[in-house]
Task: structure prediction
Amino acid sequence: MLKGYTLPRTPRGTSSLAPTPPWHYVGNALAVEFEASPVEAAAFMPEGLELSSGRSAAYFIEWQYTSENGEEYLDPVRSQYRETIILLSAEYKGLPVAYCPFIWVDQDISLMRGLVQGWPKQIGSTWITRSYDLPSKAAPILGPGGKFGATLSVKERRLIDAQVTLSELAASLPSPSFASAVNVRYFPELATEKHDLPAVHELVQLKSRDVKISPVWKGEATMSIFDHPYLELPDLRPVSVTAGYRFSFALTVDDLVHLCDLRTGM
Amino acid sequence: MLKGYTLPRTPRGTSSLAPTPPWHYVGNALAVEFEASPVEAAAFMPEGLELSSGRSAAYFIEWQYTSENGEEYLDPVRSQYRETIILLSAEYKGLPVAYCPFIWVDQDISLMRGLVQGWPKQIGSTWITRSYDLPSKAAPILGPGGKFGATLSVKERRLIDAQVTLSELAASLPSPSFASAVNVRYFPELATEKHDLPAVHELVQLKSRDVKISPVWKGEATMSIFDHPYLELPDLRPVSVTAGYRFSFALTVDDLVHLCDLRTGM
Amino acid sequence: MLKGYTLPRTPRGTSSLAPTPPWHYVGNALAVEFEASPVEAAAFMPEGLELSSGRSAAYFIEWQYTSENGEEYLDPVRSQYRETIILLSAEYKGLPVAYCPFIWVDQDISLMRGLVQGWPKQIGSTWITRSYDLPSKAAPILGPGGKFGATLSVKERRLIDAQVTLSELAASLPSPSFASAVNVRYFPELATEKHDLPAVHELVQLKSRDVKISPVWKGEATMSIFDHPYLELPDLRPVSVTAGYRFSFALTVDDLVHLCDLRTGM
Amino acid sequence: MLKGYTLPRTPRGTSSLAPTPPWHYVGNALAVEFEASPVEAAAFMPEGLELSSGRSAAYFIEWQYTSENGEEYLDPVRSQYRETIILLSAEYKGLPVAYCPFIWVDQDISLMRGLVQGWPKQIGSTWITRSYDLPSKAAPILGPGGKFGATLSVKERRLIDAQVTLSELAASLPSPSFASAVNVRYFPELATEKHDLPAVHELVQLKSRDVKISPVWKGEATMSIFDHPYLELPDLRPVSVTAGYRFSFALTVDDLVHLCDLRTGM
Result:
């Protein structure tokens, strides 16, 4: 009797890429709120969602993760990863939600957890300026005047350069935010006649619990998205940049809400 | 209308991690044939398969890949990857097949293509000695006396060290071989009550076409599998090592045979 | 007229691997104080130094760096790196100093700055548990009960596993400390008859300025150093582990003290 | 008595980043011959050399290396590396030589061997299309019509994209070639008053022995060098591309010729 939440499934079940939830996370995020072209952004909407505006956000996050009993953070190569997430403003049956057209992480464990949640994860390399608990010319302060940078590279091409200069505490998180994300779970068939008939194709809404958020710093931001020969991220290039943010958050994931089977429409 | 064989699905469909098959491959393989403990190996068998003997093989392969029209090999970071595969000798309804308990690759594109085929891929780092078309103290000859090494490391721990010294041309490939592999496709649910009720759980048989195989060199081999705190590969540690091999092969994949839905038994 | 503090030297001097000092650093350190075998440790002493005791320390540090005007921390792949340093207790002309037999970093810029200072840097991969400014099951608190891990891997072999459980604030830094490090600058010749007659071989004492140190947390620790086929680190394996530490520090480097030319003894 | 050709120097001398020469190499090279702007290229000439023309070459090489008795190729992470080299056409006292303004490798051992020879090595990521000994859509043939690509990325930015389509065997290697390279060995001081007074600054001529070269394939080529915020490689962007090449070569290095001490002019 093999065990394991994901492949590989094995006698004791300790080899699976992702263990059985709950999955606990804590991260430092740099975020940039921007306006994408509504025409371009609308073209990324999956069946079941409609674009509500061009308001978009890019999140760059330095995560640490642990499973319920694994204490993976003590062998940090199993626990730490960096992520870039793009979120668009959408509606599902008239309710505001976020939709993620692109997301990149730098660890396979995170990739697998993401696919299960419907995040369209690929491997990419994110770097984010850190603040430290000491004054130094080598680090920004976490406060007015602190300058932070973030970059994303995928398959050895720089895709995003962002910078944020903090100025004040903000009353709210950037928008759109994770809280309301709706994803598409998708797992294709390989049998010749079924290349277009996936085994799994469903609209789902993320659920998280035990969410904690630090004070949110806000300020001015810039963000460049560079040309790319095949990734369509440049379609979502900022028409204007609204603001930048820096905050920490923690959450636990062990559930998901099924909204609609996109194979049957039900 | 979004396009793409896998996530992310996008307006033009050029951003998907894995493109629509066919997928064309060519690789140089170093292989070690060994005997695992039949008791230990039997414990890795999925529902529907039975272990037929302890005869096992480890393959270390340096691949280059391209999609039907993508010419990915001209931007080789999209095309090249290295892989370690472990195969066990199994039977499906009395017919000899191979079963893969563990496989590691070093590129996300390969990871995704693998999951679709039921390969239990994780990210790992494989290194393989190369031969060159010139005599040099820095490389083995591809012939009698040529010594080749291969190593696998996962999350910064060395897992396998193998060495092969070629002595003669062989009449056949190592056994078990890819030709008859049976995999388990598995995609879990995340809704709380369904953590043990996967969306996809099926036994499948791989299909490949346009297979070409070079002359096969054979010789003596050694292989060490090192202790590991959570990966169960050491359960399959060699009781004895039979032989080593070095050969090249090419193949195309665009189909898969459904054998059994393991959720329903049909 | 070419410019640049190190190779490559170029028309505008902006391509050099390491820019002209000063170099500003800030880092989070996990440290383990331990006793090495005095006999083994003494064998690592360079000419001019004597071992004073088996008291040794391993530091695992997550750094951010910037040059005087470069603001490299805004393109953090140029600025951030992780480091493992081993320090032994030595004497130079009767004065207590630290001596570093091994040090690993994960960026070329840091490697080059290190060679200039006489640090015997190699590329290695260090991972260190992070604390966050939010309570989470995924991270330790920076205070009593907080558990931190650190690991080092080199050329795909795990070399060190360390764990520290914090219990109290400490009055002092671990010993030996960086403050008093004496290094050997060494740059060999390649002309056939001079393989043993280096161009540079001198004993130097590090200088840093504008040093700032956070409160220092201390507690119990464990540390394993694993066998290795050619790196001699296992010779310095802990006979006993004294304590673990966690603190931040910042410093600036732009000077070095020449102690002795080991080619001439002057 | 510490041993070792480079740092770290240790009791048994097996830990040094680079071992005592001889160093044996074998590699597969893709090369692009191009014309750079003579004005721009001349600005890269070190003291003692003069530019002879804009004729330049970029080499992309997949190497395997071993020391005299180390058999490093059997633990290939210690042996294999990829390299991009730029060579300019220069004269030394009226004799034609090659000069390398930029070179990138992906392993620390190669970086250190390079610094000792005066190669201005930095860490960069090179990918090169491979041919295989089997016909496959996934690989070019090593012959007329075979298309090969090569790319270079540094600190997560793509710097070079090159493509070569082979058409015929060539009578000679690309020019300028390695055979006549003149390098600058350079090792700076860190004492405050000596930042501009290096400890080592000399013009040297490379020596290699036991050189073997495969048949040389030649054809048409394209090469793009992309903008970069601080690396000056774009100054050497092709004005025109002459030809592309693909060949293998092997050599041994254990000597170097001193030409001139650039600190004293002698």
In short: Chain B has one domain: 25-261. The longest strand of chain B covers residues 240-261.
